[in-house]
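Field reference: sequence -> structure
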Amino acid sequence: MSQFVQFVGPTHALRLFGVKLVGIDAENGKKLLFTIGLIAVLLVLSKALRLLTHAVQGRGARAAFWTRQVIHLFTALVMIVGTVSIWFDDPARLTTAVGLVTAGLAFALQRVVTAVAGYGLILRGKTFNVGDRIVMGGVRGDVIALDFLQTTIMEMGQPPPVQSADPAMWVKARQYTGRIVTVSNAQVFDEPVFNYSRDFPFVWEEMMIPIAYRDEWAAIERLLLDVAARHTVRISDLAEPALVALEERYAVKRADMAPAVFVRMTDNWVELSLRFLAEDHGVRVLKDRMTRDILAGMTAAGIGVASGTYEIVGLPPVRVELPPAAGARP
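Structure field:
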């Protein structure tokens, strides 16, 4: 066996079947063992630290998520620095190797590098956080996970006015569809990211009510304002501190959070648009409760919703003439 595998020369280079293998010697073998040992220790340490995050779960899923993110970043950083320290003891060789590796990665893994850069932008720029409701890369929903390359989103539907937006949805509200979608972090450089809940976790919603010109639309206006005030007073109180913080951080004008009704004349009816504040989650439930109260109030007032349909209430007398049978005398 010693005739086929030998260590020769002052560096104890490996010679296999009489062929001297370049770069494989006793020193590199030690470096390889140190590298394997370092990686094994870091993986065990990372696993142990991740198990400790279960204790953090009691303080909230978001805290546990960011704890895991810190563990991943720390492990990756120590692994890179440790591996480089083991294999490159000469600064000149290190500079050359880093340059070659960087050039190769920039050419061969452009999208991967962009995704990692997007991950850094998301963290540094506070574009969104786990639990935020966003639109990213054409996907709408809640962020449920974030890693170096991808963002995982629990998809939601859209209201009827924007049902035609891609991708098409069968859920006619901002509620979960059941699909989990992964989006590359590189999308933050290509398209805008819409955040429903980052700095101001509330949205302004509208409900359109068409009223016939013959009906008393002013009474319906009072009904709409009363219903909106009863259902959104708590939301307005919660939104006030968030709006103050938003004004301090950004150059935004003060927005009126009180419900309002806007009247518009059309060719067929008077259109009343009720504008009110809602939380970023649970909009469909809120509008359902308000709609029930509005319908009950309109029924009590004897006022209906105007529409472009036609109702046939009667028919004139109809005379039917049949042709004579074949062969019959006239």
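Note: The radius of gyration is 34 Å.
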